[in-house]
Amino acid sequence: MRIVKEALGGEGAALAPGDLELIGQLARRPLSPEEVYTFSVRLCDNEVDRDFDRFDPLTLEELATMFVGKSGIFDHQWSARGQAARIYRTEVVYEPERPTRAGDHYCWLKGYAYMVRTEGNRDLIAEIEGGIKKEVSVGCSVERAVCSICGADRNQGDCGHVKGQEYGGQLCYASLEGASDAYEFSFVAVPAQPRAGVVKGAGSPYPLIGLKELVRGNPRCVLALEELEAEARLGRKYLDGLREDVVRLALLADRELDSRAIKSLAMKLSPAELEEMAKSYARRAGEKYPLKTQLEYGERPAVSNSADQAFLV
Which of 14, 49, 141, 149 sits CB 3.0–4.6 Å from 161 for a disulfide? Predict the structure, then answer.
């Protein structure tokens, strides 16, 4: 799965101890501090973005090593003439005080890039320093897009969950996992965005359109799609109720269970698995709290013929 993601970048960065040695490993000859210009870029992060995707923190760690040595170009035009910079060092920056929409700590991949100072890139350096060139976009590939609700790989087919919707209070998004390659980062001409701006593709030669756009102009298909959507809403409502039943019955059957753990487990089970679990917990809860009839039937015990019998009601 090919990923293209924009983020804020292009901040000037002073040479740190050891940077010239790292740059020298990529250059054909040793360069002096006066010959190079260095800057940092925010490549990608683990926040849930506008397409309800996010890079898993482990994926960021994997991409960190892959981006070392990769070129900086313009608008993802893979041409040697457009090569303007090269990444010589990366690090994953963790900000534990800032939570993400996924509920974990925010982190992002920071790249350090260098350019050789020439007459030709003097204007580009001035634009970076002046804050004109602030947006960069990364090109990379990942193996899986994992659904946050059921754990299915969305690249292998539709799991039935809709990104951006909530199921039992849990947001549905795709976790991009298993970094397989990093291609480049690009300077792009897009409006400034707060942190990440996102444009993604899955390597398909066909445009990504929705079902409604696909059936537009065919009334019968539109009607069939509306019926499917209505049935899907009923199915999601039934599934949400089934998950709630599993959690309720589980806590009845065993008071020591962690409610959050049971809720998390219920979100990952299929409908058939949920139904079986509901039956199992219902049986266990019934054994623990058996139902008793309000009226008792059978012979009453014989009343004693003692002297106090007259006072019995």
Answer: 149
